[in-house]
Amino acid sequence: MSASNPVIVLLSDSDTEPEDDPNLPSRDECEARCQTFAEITGTDTALAMFYLQDREWNVDRALNAYFAETGDNHKSQSDSASSVTPARVTLVSSHTGGTSTAARRDDAPYLTLRPPVIQPKSSKCIRVLSWNLGGLDPDNLQSRTEGACSVMMQEQPEIIFLQEVVGRSLKIIQEKCSSYQVFPSVEASVMTLGSYFTAMLLQKNTVQLRAINVADFPTTLMSRNLLEVQCKVKDVSMTLLTSHLESTAEYAAERKKQLTICFDRMLQAPKDHTVIFGGDLNLRDKE
Fold it and tell me: Where is this region: Disordered (predicted)?
């Protein structure tokens, strides 16, 4: 093979990634804990995964962090500490029907938290999800990616922007998210070991693809680019753009140049298009 040809490095699971953390709950248990968090906070499972992943999937710690950060109080003002009876919580898996019980007190009543009822989505509503999958961290990559896929398939947004996708996680996404068209921002021939990229997922039954383009940022030192799609979503003509801009404080000047390019592309979109730009912009407040 000549030096000018791309080199593709393929490694097996055992060669590329350490074994998953044995303390990580099963996939069904992770989903059940996400449902519990969403039910108690009145939010959704995507936010639940954000809080739970950073707190070793401990529901109590995740809830405490959420209420501390948002300033919400899930007890009514009339409740007092002495009047609150600790509940015995039964987590009901949405896939297996099995339960996982966390006993607060043996004689406490059961509070069964089932998956929240998803209200029918408006035919005119278009939902967009952006998610940095953290593919550079090899720890539990398969479990984390499968968990993200589970959330995406449950929430069913029409448009998904993903960052820090790697070759192995892309394969999982393509297998698990069967109701989506998956468009990575790089070709398979340049997906080498250690590289990561963005991707855009478009729901098959609501999005009609018209054109796709990938533009490399001319002065990037981190192989960053801008993925642009023109499509029709529920009879709305749209231009969608996503990127993962240059990282770290040292590259602020390059990051701002890239952001300017993104804004210019937005302004160049057809006048009858709704334009959405999103991703991981790495922007600091002063930028």
Answer: 1-28
